[in-house]
Structure formats: structure tokens, C-alpha cells
Amino acid sequence: MTITTKLAAVILASLLFMPIAHARTITDSAGRVVEIPDEIQRVYAAGPPAMVLLYALRPEVMTGWPRRPYPEEMPYIAEPYRDLPETGRLTGRGGEANLEVVLSIEPDLILDFGSVTGTYVSLADRVQQQTGIPYLLIDGRFENTAEALRLVGEALGVPERGLELATYVEETFADIDRVLTEVPVEERPRTYLARGPDGLETGLLGSINTEIIERAGGRNVADPGNGQRGLVQASMEQVLAANPDTIIRWDRNFYAAVWSDPLWQSIDAVRSERVFLSPTAPFGWIDRPPSINRIIGLKWLSGLFYPDRIDFDIREDTRAFYELFYHVTLSEAELDTLVEWSDGRPPTSPR
Question: Rounded to an integer, what distance in angstroms lies between the CA atom of residue 114 and that of residue 245?
């Protein structure tokens, strides 16, 4: 029996024995009118961004993790959900879950959060047609975060929860906007996102990997001026020429080494001790994935950029965010581990 034949057989069987349920319609971010059950009990996250959105809004309906959390991430995830199975992903880089796997999980809904370009609309339509499972495609642009929370909260049957999280996001954006109206662009921190083991991979201006820096009021020095976006490999000469006054990084090895690396010593950010290590558990504060986990990163960055204008207490604000979005109450030791080295001082400096 071919894979196509087996898939058809699985679909037929699932349809024959599927209980009759009342339905309603939701218009997703791509303008697709999708019929979904009134009661949502099981949701398959198509990729990591959708996983974070789903976990924050209604974790009890998760069918699993596209990527199982690493051991060091477990303390920052609510205990009932730490051991959910790894289900793979349908979309994005490394998408490997096949439709037979999705059907065997028997979700009421497939949720995707990210790009709503034609490629992803086509994928959503195809998967929905082949499986019979409703597929919602939600715009994952940073500026759309609050609307996404409201829309998915409504779809999942938790509109109050969606409103609560959306309000938090809108208030965060508004606080930053009030500051940015008073700070001319030319006076904003010249910032470089150092990715890769040597710090030479970065995101160009406007890229999904760096939009948080720009939204927090930083100037991305990786700007070729031609509208190009995405991740690129820079040269050390280009970084030296750009001479950022602030560097953001999430790799501890690079962070520990950059202070004594002769190649980086003449860069203003290193000389003035403005190299900041972004926390990464349970999800990255800058990207990895580019989802609502970036909201706490936005608060952190804006506090670093404008400490005299934005009141951000990294311990108290982080504790509050993790309770509200991640359903966990952090211990002092867990906070220590999470935010260690996030203040821009070399690892050898006293704290």
C-alpha cells in the first residue's frame, strides 16, 4: 500500500468514526474562513512560534511540543506540560511531521503562527483539505501580537485570557512608544545582533530576527540600505566599520570569550561593557522562536537602551511575565540562572 493510499485510508477511518460536533467559523489572518468545533480540546502547533502562543493561551489543549524542551528549559515550564511528547513541525525550517503523524494525534485544530504569504496559505489549504482538520494561519508579525492573542483566544474558547495577554502587550508597546517620541533616531543605540559561534551571523534591518531591537528603540547597524532582509554572514571588517555601541547575544560561549578576544577589543560596545547576554529559557527573549516570548525581551531591551526613561526591574518584571504567560512562579535560584550576565558586565565582574 502506498503512502498516499494509507493516508487516504486513515482519513476515511477518522471521518467515519468522528463524533458529530457543533461548529463555528473563524476568519484567520489570511482571510480564510475556517470552520472549527465549538469545543476545542486538542490543538496541534504547526511550528515553534505557534507552540509558544498556544502554551501561553491555553496549555491544557496542547498535543505536544514541535521540539521537546531541553533539560535546562524544564524548570521554566509549568510541570503538567513538561513531559508532553515531541510531535515535530509542519512548517518552517526543518518541518518534518507528516500528515499521518498529525492524523494519528487526532487534533481538533492545527494552529500556525508566522508568515501569511502565499506559500503558507497554500500549505494551510492543502493540509486542511487532505486531513479534514481545521487549520488556522495567524499573522506572526511583532506589531500584530495583540491582535493574534485576541483572535486565537477567541478560537480556543478563552477570550478573556486572550484579552488579558493582549492588554499586557499593548501597554508594553505604548510605554516604549512614549519614550521613542522623545528620542531622535540619530540618538538611539547603534545595536548589533551577534549570532553564530563567532558572532558574525546577524539579521539585517527589518528582519524577523532583529525587529525586536528596532521596536525597542535600537538602530540596527546591519543595514545595507537596499531593503534586503534576513540573516547574513558578516565579516569582522564590517562589524569593525559599523562599530556598534551595543551588542546583543544569546550564546554564553561567545559572551564569555568576547571580552578578551583581540578582534573585538576596539569595538565601542566591548570597551564600554555594553555586550548583553539575552536569556533563553524556556524560549529565547530575542527570537528562537519569533513568537510572543519576545515581549519580555522587548521590555528588557528597552530598559537597557533607555534606563533613565523606562523603569524595568529585571527580576520583578521577569517574575511577573513568567507567571502571567508561562504559568510558573520562579524561585530566586531560577531567576539567578535565567538572568545571569544579562547586565552587560564581563563574567568576571563582581555582582
Answer: 31
Q: Residue 347 falls within a domain, yes or no?
A: no
Instruction: Determine contact, residues 329/179, Cβ cutoff 8 Å.
Output: no
- Cα first-last separation, the chain: 64
Residue 269, pLDDT > 80, answer yes
**Worst-scoring range by mean pLDDT, 12-16, 62-66, 277-281, 295-299?**
12-16
Answer yes or no: are the C-beta atoms of 57 and 153 closer than 8 Å.
yes
Q: Do 74 and 148 fall within a single domain?
A: yes
Indicate the number of domains in the chain: 2
* Host domain of residue 32: 3-159
Give the Cα-Cα-Cα angle 180, 184, 189 (nearest 5 degrees).
80
SS3 246: strand
Given a cut of 50, whether residue 26 has pLDDT beyond it is: yes
Q: Which residue has the cell 535565567?
A: 338
Q: Which residues pair with 191 in a beta bridge?
A: 220, 246
pLDDT at 20: 43
Phi, psi of 24 (to 5 degrees): -140, 170
Sign of the torsion formed by the C-alpha atoms of 293, 294, 295 and 301: positive
What cell numbers appear for 240 in the block?
A: 569593525
Closest CA to 189 of 117, 268, 122: 268
The answer to whether position 27 is within a domain reads yes
Q: Which residues pair with 118 in a beta bridge?
A: none
CB 215 within 8 A of CB 160: no
The DSSP symbol for 18 reads P
Burial of 327 (0-12, 13-18, 19+ CB in 10 A): middle
User: Mapping DSSP to helix (H, G, I), strand (E, B) and coil, where does residue 322 land?
Assistant: helix
DSSP label at 19?
P
The pTM assigned to this predicted structure is 0.91
Instruction: Say if 265 falls within a structural domain.
Output: yes
Q: Tell me if 164 is assigned to some domain.
A: no
Asked if residue 64 lies in contact with residue 85, where contact means CB atoms within 8 angstroms, the answer is yes
pLDDT in tens, 145-156: 999 999 999 999
> Within this chain, do residues 152 and 256 fall inside the same structural domain, yes or no?
no
**DSSP bridge pairs for 201:** 195, 233
